[in-house]
Amino acid sequence: MTLSATSVSWAAGGIEILTDVSLTVETGEFLGIIGPNGSGKTSLMSLLAGIRTPKSGSVLLDGAPIASLGRRTVAQRLAFVEQQSETVERITARQAVELGRTPYLGALSPWSLEDDRIVDGALDSVDMGHLAARSWHTLSGGERQRLHIARALAQQPEILLLDEPTNHLDIGHQISLLDLVHQQNLTVIAALHDLNHAALFCDRIAVMQEGRLVALGEPRDVLTEERIRTVFGVDVEIEQDDGGICHIRFLTRRAQRPAPEGQRRNLSLMGA
Ligand SMILES: Nc1ncnc2c1ncn2[C@@H]1O[C@H](COP(=O)(O)OP(=O)(O)OP(=O)(O)O)[C@@H](O)[C@H]1O
Ligand SMILES: [Mg+2]
């Protein structure tokens, strides 16, 4: 299953927000989208998910314009976890995940034990099985975020679009969630803010800047000190480990400032 955008542009409020973006997601790859706030990551993902229509250009899902496919067909192939997804209804954690089965239900295919099994599996995979009976509105931000992922997994898509999936999560759950997503046999497109996570988990990275795709490639080629300075305006040092994984160190003003006199003395006593 392939998903591709060809020369897509999108405008809102009379302002062009995305300009001439083309990319194809390969089957089974983990594609990261990085870029500063407002650079167009969410807008691009909305076009790729078919919930917005490009002003020009096209989005194709398996060669067919996504706009020509029915909602149900798209939802069986592609799940989108939005950046600000909220559920207002009074439902339990489990019911929130059960919503992921909607594209498969109908008069001739009622809820079955298989649906129960899939929902249980999705809850367990994000470590939320023990909170299944809890009311949604009593859950923490991170617990809700994990349920959104579980709902998307219960949808059993081939393509998973995740807009800042680790937002709200503690570092342990950030890593385990990216690990979990990575281990699924899925095509993943994820907007990520943590560049080290992008380096660690992505097969390729797309870099957005002011509504344009300015780089696309493997992390080691895309994540350069020069590009991070140009796109994000921060100075970094990048080391590659033996496995070719980039490790990005941010050079804050604090790090660049000479250490206070007392600390310098201590450092020199320690042989530094
Ligand atoms: N419906 C809209 N009407 C007007 N402007 C919009 C609309 N949607 C998005 N924009 C603007 O388009 C730009 C890109 O927004 P988008 O949400 O795609 O950025 P982003 O890269 O996802 O940012 P963030 O990292 O903050 O999530 C922003 O300047 C935003 O204000
Ligand atoms: Mg966004």
Count the DSSP helices. 11
What is the alpha-carbon Rg in Å? Answer: 21 Å
Number of domains: 1
Record field, number of beta strands: 12
Bound molecules: adenosine-5'-triphosphate, magnesium ion
* DSSP helix fraction: 25-40%
Secondary structure category: alpha/beta
Are there runs of 5+ residues with pLDDT below 50, and where?
A: none
Please outline the major beta sheet. 6 strands, mixed
Question: What's the architecture in CATH terms?
Answer: 3-Layer(aba) Sandwich
The side-by-side strand order for the widest beta sheet comes to 6-7-8-3-9-10
Structural shape: globular
- Cα-to-Cα separation, first versus last residue: 55 Å
CATH topology: Rossmann fold
Give the structure's gist in a few sentences.
With 272 residues, the protein is of the alpha/beta class.
Describe the structure using short key phrases.
272 residues, alpha/beta, Rossmann fold, six-stranded mixed β-sheet, four-stranded antiparallel β-sheet, 11 helices, 12 strands, globular, binds adenosine-5'-triphosphate, binds magnesium ion
